[in-house]
């Protein structure tokens, strides 16, 4: 448009070293221009610096000064005169996180193509991690997240990558609540099978557990049947089971990092409070809810005390914890792997199927299938470098790949 302000786009490329940015801005400052936008990236020590400024009346003179400065720096430069600012396209803005191991160019091409098909534009791309997975965050404008999610979720399944679409909002930066399943999510394996090994019933319990997690059996009925097989197991076996628990890779890192940022955590489990309460205390988790095994005279009776925490119970717990923390459901995150996690995954602002059963992956709009629970951090806009820097400040050496 004729009435749009004239602007100059300065694009500088070359070997990165100290003083490049200050030299270019020194050249610009003599012309008294205003800075409207700036982007700078470094890839393999190669700098790409883009600066958008107001164009002075004698813009060609400024162009000559910039070109001489670039030559002195032994760098290439382009100066383009145009009109207008660098505004995002109208419509909602979204954050799209892509995780691959590896992340191939063909996958990026396909995702970018679907974004373009939706009439959206990729405004900026940032790297969240380069190991043990590759994670990128795309800042996208021009299409609502609700329109992008189903299309990109289907594409992610086809490509074998993990992908999350989140609407840009203040909730993403504020205090949030994370509610996690326990068995095969926060920890590796199923606690009830570990207890069943003490009764010689591990194979039978595992068979029923798998069917329940696939959604083939009513969860409460299957749980009561499995617990009945534990009758007579000494209560002391629970101590042995707890001692043998192995956390999911990156679990401690995720909790530790997000607690620093003021996040609240809850675990809800179809397992047992005798285990989950200890896990919560060990990890610094704020809330825990699970089933309670009945113990009489130092032995399991094969019964559960009180109501069963099932699929509906997990979603109810998420809502209750959110109300207690004082956050809206849009600011909650639910992570789980089995059919009994589906209601809370659907209720949360961001529901994540973590190395989940097929029916859960199909139902959830966000899946993480790499074996590192702290990959969830990348979905929240937290980079691997930020995690390591925060740990280094308190003397923690973050393992690679992240194991705890």
UniProtKB/TrEMBL annotation:
Q: Where is the ACT domain?
A: 9-82
Q: What's an example GO BP annotation here?
A: L-serine biosynthetic process
The keyword Protein biosynthesis belongs to this UniProt entry's keyword annotation:
no
One example GO MF annotation: magnesium ion binding
Which Pfam families does this chain map to? ACT_6, ACT_PSP_2, HAD
Cellular component annotations (GO), alphabetically ordered: cytoplasm
Enzyme active site: 181 (nucleophile), 183 (proton donor)
Pathway(s) served: Amino-acid biosynthesis; L-serine biosynthesis; L-serine from 3-phospho-D-glycerate: step 3/3
As recorded in UniProt, its EC number(s) are 3.1.3.3
Can you state which reaction this protein catalyses? O-phospho-D-serine + H2O = D-serine + phosphate; O-phospho-L-serine + H2O = L-serine + phosphate
Cofactor(s) recorded in Swiss-Prot or TrEMBL: Mg(2+)
User: Which UniProt keywords are present, listed alphabetically?
Assistant: Amino-acid biosynthesis, Hydrolase, Magnesium, Metal-binding, Serine biosynthesis
PANTHER family, from UniProt? PHOSPHOSERINE PHOSPHATASE
UniProt record similarity statement: Belongs to the HAD-like hydrolase superfamily. SerB family.
NCBIfam families, per this entry? HAD-SF-IB, serB
Write the protein's name.
Answer: phosphoserine phosphatase
Q: Which gene encodes it?
A: serB
């Amino acid at each position: 448009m004729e009435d749009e302000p004239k602007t100059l786009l300065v694009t500088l490329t070359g070997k990165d070293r100290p003083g490049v940015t200050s030299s270019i801005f020194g050249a610009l400052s003599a012309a008294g221009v205003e800075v409207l936008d700036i982007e700078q990236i470094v890839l393999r020590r190669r700098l790409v610096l883009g600066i958008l400024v107001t164009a002075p009346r004698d813009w060609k003179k400024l162009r000559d000064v910039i070109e001489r400065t670039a030559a002195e720096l032994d760098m290439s430069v382009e100066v383009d005169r145009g009109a207008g600012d660098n505004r995002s396209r109208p419509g909602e803005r979204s954050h799209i996180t892509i995780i691959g191991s590896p992340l191939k160019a063909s996958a990026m091409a396909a995702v970018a193509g679907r974004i373009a098909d939706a009439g959206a534009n990729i405004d900026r791309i940032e790297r969240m991690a380069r190991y043990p997975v590759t994670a990128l965050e795309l800042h996208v404008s021009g299409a609502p997240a609700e329109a992008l999610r189903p299309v990109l979720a289907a594409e992610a399944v086809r490509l074998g990558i993990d992908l999350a679409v989140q609407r840009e909002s203040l909730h993403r930066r504020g205090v949030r609540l994370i509610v996690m399943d326990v068995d095969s999510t926060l920890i590796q394996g199923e606690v009830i099978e570990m207890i069943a090994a003490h009764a010689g019933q591990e194979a039978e319990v595992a068979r029923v557990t798998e069917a329940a997690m696939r959604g083939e059996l009513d969860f409460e009925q299957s749980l009561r049947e499995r617990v009945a097989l534990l009758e007579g197991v000494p209560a002391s076996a629970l101590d042995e089971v707890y001692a043998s628990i192995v956390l999911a890779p990156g679990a401690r890192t995720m909790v530790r990092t997000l607690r620093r940022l003021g996040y609240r955590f809850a675990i809800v489990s179809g397992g047992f409070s005798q285990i989950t309460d200890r896990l919560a205390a060990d990890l610094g988790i704020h809330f825990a809810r699970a089933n309670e095994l009945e113990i009489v005279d130092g032995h399991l009776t094969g019964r559960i005390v009180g109501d069963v925490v099932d699929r509906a119970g997990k979603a109810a717990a998420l809502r209750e914890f959110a109300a207690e923390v004082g956050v809206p459901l849009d600011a909650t995150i639910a992570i789980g792997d089995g059919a009994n996690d589906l209601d809370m995954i659907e209720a949360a602002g961001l529901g994540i199927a973590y190395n989940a059963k097929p029916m859960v992956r199909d139902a959830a709009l966000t899946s993480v299938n790499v074996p590192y629970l702290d990959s969830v951090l990348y979905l929240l806009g937290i980079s691997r470098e930020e995690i390591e820097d925060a740990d280094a400040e308190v003397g923690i050496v973050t393992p690679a790949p992240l194991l705890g």
